Give the backbone structure.
Amino acid sequence: MIIVMKPGANQEQIDGVVHRLAEIGSEAHISTGQLRTVIGAIGDRGRIQQLPWGAMPGVERAVPVLKPYKFVAREFQAEDTVIKVRTAQIGGGVFAPIAGPCAVESRDQLFRTAEAVRDAGATILRGDAFKPRTSPFSFQGLAEEGLQLLAEAREEFDLPFVAEVLDPRDVEMISGYADMLRIGTRNMANFALLSEVGKVHKPVLLKRGFTATVDEWLNAAEYIYKEGNHEVIMVERGIRTFETSTRNTLDISAAPVIKAMSHLPVIIDPSHSSGRRHLVTPLARAAIAVGADGFIVDVHPAPETAQVDGDQALLPYEFAELMDQMRALAAALDYTI
Amino acid sequence: MIIVMKPGANQEQIDGVVHRLAEIGSEAHISTGQLRTVIGAIGDRGRIQQLPWGAMPGVERAVPVLKPYKFVAREFQAEDTVIKVRTAQIGGGVFAPIAGPCAVESRDQLFRTAEAVRDAGATILRGDAFKPRTSPFSFQGLAEEGLQLLAEAREEFDLPFVAEVLDPRDVEMISGYADMLRIGTRNMANFALLSEVGKVHKPVLLKRGFTATVDEWLNAAEYIYKEGNHEVIMVERGIRTFETSTRNTLDISAAPVIKAMSHLPVIIDPSHSSGRRHLVTPLARAAIAVGADGFIVDVHPAPETAQVDGDQALLPYEFAELMDQMRALAAALDYTI
Amino acid sequence: MIIVMKPGANQEQIDGVVHRLAEIGSEAHISTGQLRTVIGAIGDRGRIQQLPWGAMPGVERAVPVLKPYKFVAREFQAEDTVIKVRTAQIGGGVFAPIAGPCAVESRDQLFRTAEAVRDAGATILRGDAFKPRTSPFSFQGLAEEGLQLLAEAREEFDLPFVAEVLDPRDVEMISGYADMLRIGTRNMANFALLSEVGKVHKPVLLKRGFTATVDEWLNAAEYIYKEGNHEVIMVERGIRTFETSTRNTLDISAAPVIKAMSHLPVIIDPSHSSGRRHLVTPLARAAIAVGADGFIVDVHPAPETAQVDGDQALLPYEFAELMDQMRALAAALDYTI
Amino acid sequence: MIIVMKPGANQEQIDGVVHRLAEIGSEAHISTGQLRTVIGAIGDRGRIQQLPWGAMPGVERAVPVLKPYKFVAREFQAEDTVIKVRTAQIGGGVFAPIAGPCAVESRDQLFRTAEAVRDAGATILRGDAFKPRTSPFSFQGLAEEGLQLLAEAREEFDLPFVAEVLDPRDVEMISGYADMLRIGTRNMANFALLSEVGKVHKPVLLKRGFTATVDEWLNAAEYIYKEGNHEVIMVERGIRTFETSTRNTLDISAAPVIKAMSHLPVIIDPSHSSGRRHLVTPLARAAIAVGADGFIVDVHPAPETAQVDGDQALLPYEFAELMDQMRALAAALDYTI
């Protein structure tokens, strides 16, 4: 931590900061410039970061040198985390195509979609039974019945599946069905839910809050990781900006940023970021070019009848065409797909 | 809903939209311009808004005419909602000063603060026992012990208190102690929590998600309202923008915007929006000038030792000076304070 | 400047940074932590800030301790700058109400408005002859003819006036008419224009770019200041955020932030920030409560016929009512108005 | 335009809108819903869009159905615009790699870079002689001497070059040297400059304002186009968001969005968007995968000595490696590079 003193800070105030650091067993390195005194705090990161430096007399601001998370940082583990979901792999040179309906609506809708994405080359099925909706009057999902259908589809098409969990009270039940859990964008900072998911032995797709910085997102992963669940996959799904021509702004740079800062795999969601069907295919291609470890794409056999997010679902034939392009790109970039 | 067709949309596609509207018992009004056909959909708002118009052949986009929420809208109830919290009032010409420590840290810290804010003129005490922290290694609050201390302070200083609820499993327990509940900014779209709080008979301070639009925030209020709890107070506490000289950007315009769109009271949090002690007083003054129904301000007897958010806490004497200014402004603006 | 080295930075890289600092006559203070080495650079701010530290081997990032601007900083001049515009004053305890039409459309429209705002208590008239419009097909202003009308109105109603300048080639001509120049939000980083305006002896209203940080805005003021023109007034007029219920988000905190960082006066534009007539009055009241030195408000005798920004113009009687409220607030807050 | 009336709008107010439309020769289609009356305005887009609908009695808001720009829209010209810059091509299936130093600093620096990027496969040289700098104390470029060096480099290495223009007074002079002009991000809404550049017969790279919506950016292109210069290339270079791990957030979706809305080519700037050297290569690969028509990349032989933006410049060997990857991707995607 670097503590920048105010221009007029006096010796007593500087001594106050040094004393406070000494109390927590940390050292102070003082640099006296012409206009400002700067104090470098060296010692236990956790203890230093938690003191309210900005509230101390004479302090202008405190600038952290280290990130607040540890376990998910690249410095903690140099080699990439590679995750297995039954037959499928995410990371380690393998690009994972995850696809399926946004929400499970019926057996027929789910099975038609699952068969189509399996045939096109998807390795993991997506499909939700619980949906967080902005309006309380919208369709909220089929609940446990949806999970039963997903489990049947897994057997029928030999595809592991991922489903969203919304409520800490549902974690155990959903884990009984799903191969992988998903934390949605609205729940990225729902710390009660993160902790609960951290106690389960299932990989977790952790969507970025549409308003979260990369640092906050990695801190959310840390919540899961520190409870004992080390199988976290980061999902970039767009952030909220002033631009309205897309539903959110896909922050594609986040993929290489995360890979530099963390050992966790990163995948991209071109469907929920763009919210527009015609943008999904180009953004999915960009995902592999930028170095992501997979994508998660909405597919629906009849988007114009979808109960959730029909605007962005690919038709099965569009998804098959996309997968052809992905295979050509994977070959050019030395990925396995 | 206004459905705008693509430039080349053909008659069959226009008929498709009209047919779909007829299926849900709605009417279509077709306007044919030189470059676009536009279809006005008239009928049940809920059913119309839930169809995936953007996914239908020939449709360019759909523009909602009505808001998705009903009960919290000014059109549903013309007169202002006024809320009583024991001896205190929020709304109806009464400006409510809510103040206290960000987190309860000890009996001494809480009681010193409570006495000071009561003496200065606060009508409701704030103080949290459960804190959502970005890092899992930060102080998380005193839990139930904190609530017991708050209940003791209520008796001692005759001040009702508000406390944050983070987890749906804690709603019942916290309601047993607190006079008013608070939903924090990170949980504004935690629909499981909103529904649980909607079942309780206590007023709720609903903080705006720092990334939420006004419409999403009113939708969150709707979640609480439709479960039967009609005592919701909207709290503007800053939104996330590119500006970093303040912790968040206080969207002060949201107060008159909400008052035009809704009958619910609105208060302002100058502490968490700015994150800087020297900005709290001017922003608190602006709250009453802009027409808000109250403020919620952090006060701490020794901010440089605070375990949470010390940077922004006022000292007791600063809060007393602020309250003097507030009384002068209330007189000029015909408020009771 | 604080230079944070990468975790694995070696001695040669550290020496490289120290050597580079020595070359520009600066000193290096090295702090060696467990995980990072941090180098404090002490010496000439300008020379240190201009080197590409992030591109040097072994460097993770460089954190500036000092702001890049000098002359406009509070540290350069402790006392507030107070500005006189003929008979009017901005700053020094005087709140300046500036009002008038967004654009000059005709002699009649201008004179009716000028008379009304003068009668209500405005001390400076606004009115533009050159308008920057997003679309090239929109009304672009009356040009020099508009300035002539403004000069006539000045004589008739004894009100100094401010007008926008868009093009460096027009600065001299417009200065021949106007008492104060205005740099619009789109031109805040038009450095050619800022430099030209810096050579003129007229006060300048410098609107914040709707996308500019406070630091960038103060740097823009520095461009004007360093050319010799020290009469700069900062105008907060809203920033671009994700919120769409207002045209921009008024960053009201910017007023006290600027007053802490700079000696320049700050005023607020509630009209262009909100873009909605019913929000102008509450936001104008908040301007004085938050400690700003004035406001600039659009008034139009018939907004429904306005050629620019009619949606946000107050009617003359609404402006008169606002001024009554402003006088009550000024009395409560010890301002002269 | 769709005009939505307020809930309580009366017949007189509805008639007022209809009458106003009639005055400008437009038709009104009235749809009366249970809660709102909606009026569809059909007629001349330009005249309808310029009236201040929001200021008319009884009107809640006006929603435009059509975009304000015409000439640059896909509907105005169905086939893609393809641009030739001497020997180079942008668009029409040809991916254009533009590379070179951010600023021309010396003959040696420029020539070493030009040779390296030519050898690696770049088809156009970048290099600026005039730099807009946030601080007035930073290096501002070599001015006309820089252009002379660029012209020499063009002869020596047979590469056309692009240079930035900052001031309307310099357009003619710079056009005398450069093969292509560039409007920088800070000047995207500098309408005086756009108009001047519109009168020149040189292709123009139009950078997106880092705060501009796609619609505003296309409007800026319209300013150039309507003056007679039809050779405009759109450059996505990142937008300002809350995320700080990159300098700006590359809005990669803007490439397919623009290609759907306009016939103009789009290229991507991975250097200025990210501001970090290690992100440039992955983002440059994403540019071709998403369907852009080229990129513009900073290259410098010794970034640690660069006078501008050294943090993001690729070394010559890194650029050569990138070009190898680009050729593999171009082959997979059927582009010529």
Observations:
- The interface with chain A takes residues 211, 213-215, 239, 241-246, 249-257, 260-261, 273-274, 278-279, 282-283, 285-286, 288-291, 325, 328-329, 331-333 of chain D (CB under 8 Å).
- Chain D has a mean pLDDT of 93.
- Residues 316-333 of chain D form the longest helix (18 residues).
- The longest strand of chain D covers residues 27-32.
